[in-house]
Hints:
By secondary structure, the chain is of the alpha+beta class. The chain has one domain: Nucleoside Triphosphate Pyrophosphohydrolase, CATH 3.90.79. The chain has helices spanning 61-73, 146-157; strands at 3-8, 13-17, 21-33, 36-42, 48-49, 52-54, 77-92, 97-110, 126-133. Strands 1, 2, 3, 4, 5, 6, 7, 8 and 9 form a 9-stranded mixed beta sheet that branches. The longest helix is centred in the middle third of the chain and has 13 residues, at 61-73. The N and C termini lie far apart (46 Å).
Amino acid sequence: MDVLKCKTLYGEEKEFPKAKFKFRPSVYAIIIRENKLLTVTSKRTNTLMLPGGGIEIGEPIEKALIREVNEETGIDIEIVNFINFKESLFYYDPLDEAFHSFLFYYHCKALTTQVKTDSEVIDFECSTPQWIALDTLKPEHFNNFGEAVLKTVNLVVHS
């Protein structure tokens, strides 16, 4: 049986049968305002994530991004441009599922700025939408891919 190595939600490496992987396209927003990045917190690892998530079948990427950002943060956005792409083999421990993920990153502009409170966020994976000062962010603050996220943030800052 063919197996692939993937990274778990908790940053560990795991082998998983290739035949059981699912494709999962997802989209994430880089939203910067007053030198602060809009983030959400993983309920499972208590680390930061960018707002965004899975693209539903038949859903255009841009509509998925607008929907996900609003669901997770309450912010309305305007998409500025596509900024980066990452491919990942990912194991999601809580559901015992593995994904071959395609992660699309977009630079977005906040049209509104008031984030939802924790009790208003109804999401399986994230909570605590917040604006965090760029100069305080480090790769280890993020759930996996911290270096890639900050590299992508820097592409936006320096564009």
